[in-house]
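SAMPLE LOG
Freezer: B-3
Tube label: C17
Construct: single chain, 67 aa
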Amino acid sequence: MKFETPAHRKRRDPAIREDVTSQADALKAEKSRRWLDDNADAIRAHNDRIEREGMSLPTPWWAQEEA
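STRUCTURE (predicted):
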């Protein structure tokens, strides 16, 4: 059985204007995209190493795929 995290839930204060929350969401998305762009080389290198050498630690029993 694979461990699954619960779906992400957004909490909103109804007193905050919708345009303010949508602007905040846009800024958060832009920040996330920029972080991914800035770290793309490191992420790619990490994924290549995992592909080549495997994980440093074995997958825990509770996260292994059922056969």
